[in-house]
Specification:
The structure is a single chain. The chain is globular. It is mainly α. The chain has a domain of 90 residues: Serine Threonine Protein Phosphatase 5, Tetratricopeptide repeat. It contains 18 helices and no strands. α1 crosses α4 and α11 packs parallel to α13. The N and C termini lie far apart (87 Å). InterPro entries: TPR-like_helical_dom_sf (IPR011990), TPR_rpt (IPR019734). Keywords: TPR repeat. It holds the Pfam family TPR_8. It comes from Aspergillus heteromorphus CBS 117.55. This is TPR domain protein.
Length: 402
């Protein structure tokens, strides 16, 4: 599981948010007397349907009308913070989460009243300092979740059982978040490997069938050069959801599956990685990273003289398979580069690597003509044919005259 990243910052998010709030003045007056909880429900609905600006207006109204130090205020702070993050205004989102911490410093207020671990986990992901600061927030989140889990286990019931599974999953992910920091920002610490091992052991005990946890286990094993164990963990992670429909809640989110494809490529399971990436493209064909990884994956398959087969191509020669993979790789990478420009993607290393791979393949396959060049060549060929016909026709007339 890769460390969750906030959405890319969008242009003029602060000004857009402010304009919505000011433009919605008349709506604000009408809604101000409504129950803050109803406003937050409406805001959540708008956010889920892709209307973050409208959601912000409603959530801000709820925050303004909520009594000081009340559960309604706490809930509104969390919701407003999440919407600002969605809009790309990370700083303002972080400020709202910090205000929520002041009202619930240990996360012991029930989640139904706006408390719980959520604000700590957000602050861990949004930390400007990273490293130990992120670890501190993750640990506060884990502590809050332990408290909640203990309470749920004391009052078993159908609803509590479902919530218990969800909270354990969230706690395991938080433990994995800490482990990944010790694999990256804090990898220089003497006890980093020991801490990773302790964290992933607890995460597996809490949520043994969580795909994200198994991916983190694989990542740790890769860093330890225990490749076979990493492959086994990734195979199990993929098997948990690969045959499920996209809408099934068991299927990990898009970013987690992108991370899975990278890990599969790292341990030499390119065919499985490509299977994951093809599914991601079907869900979102505007993902620069998915197209790029698919192209890179196919290039790696070409290096092994392999190609994805549907059964009919199984008997083809290694060289034919290599050529097929290179052709497909170039197309995936060209699509990635085209989207890169259209969407103004910001990962320069991705672009440079994609261009490098395409350049290498052009040397072997030859430069591809674009559609305009191909059209000109076809027109030229038709022109030569017409000219030949005219010459032959003139010759016929001359023979007739003679």
């Amino acid at each position: 599981m890769g460390k969750p990243r906030p959405p890319q910052k969008k242009k003029s998010s602060k000004s857009r948010a402010k304009s919505v709030l000011s433009a919605g003045g008349s709506v604000s007056k009408q809604k101000m007397n409504e129950d803050p909880s109803k406003l937050l429900e409406q805001a959540t609905t708008e956010l889920q349907t892709g209307q973050p600006d409208v959601a912000l207006s409603l959530a801000q109204q709820a925050l303004n009308s909520a009594p000081a130090n009340s559960p309604a205020q706490l809930s509104a702070l969390i919701t407003v913070g999440e919407i600002y993050v969605e809009l790309g205004d990370i700083d303002t989102g972080r400020q709202h989460f910090m205000r929520a911490v002041e009202l619930d410093p240990n996360g012991t207020i029930p989640e139904s009243q706006g408390g719980g671990a959520g604000k700590f986990l957000w602050l861990a992901q949004l930390s400007e300092l990273g490293g130990r600061d992120s670890v501190q927030w993750f640990e506060k989140g884990v502590s809050s979740l332990r408290h909640t889990i203990q309470q749920l286990e004391q009052n078993p019931g159908p609803e509590e059982a479902l919530e218990l599974v969800e909270k354990k999953h969230k706690m395991a992910n938080a433990l994995c978040g800490v482990a990944e920091i010790y694999m990256t920002d804090l990898s220089w610490e003497e006890d980093a490997e020991t801490r990773c091992e302790t964290l992933i052991t607890e995460a597996i005990l809490v949520a043994p069938n969580a795909p994200e946890v198994l991916q983190t286990l694989a990542s740790i094993r890769i860093s330890q050069l225990r490749t076979e164990e990493a492959q086994a963990a990734l195979t199990k992670s993929l098997a948990l959801w690969k045959d499920l429909p996209p809408e099934d809640p068991t299927v990990p989110d898009f970013a987690t599956r992108i991370s899975l494809s990278r890990l599969l490529m790292e341990v030499g399971k390119e065919l499985e990685a490509l299977e994951v990436l093809e599914r991601l493209i079907l869900e979102d064909d505007q993902s620069v990273e998915a197209w790029y990884l698919g192209g890179w994956c196919l290039q790696l398959l070409a290096g092994k003289q392999q190609a994805p087969t549907d059964g009919e191509e199984a008997d083809e020669s290694p060289e034919v398979k290599r050529h097929a993979s290179l052709d497909a790789s170039r197309e995936w990478l060209k699509q990635s580069l085209a989207l890169y420009e259209v969407l103004q993607y910001e990962d320069e290393r991705l672009k440079d690597h994609a261009l490098e791979l395409v350049s290498e393949m052009n040397k072997e396959l030859g430069e591809e003509m674009d559609d305009d060049e191909a059209g000109e060549d076809e027109d030229n060929e038709e022109g030569w044919e017409d000219e030949e016909i005219e010459v032959e026709s003139d010759g016929d007339h001359e023979m007739a005259d003679s």
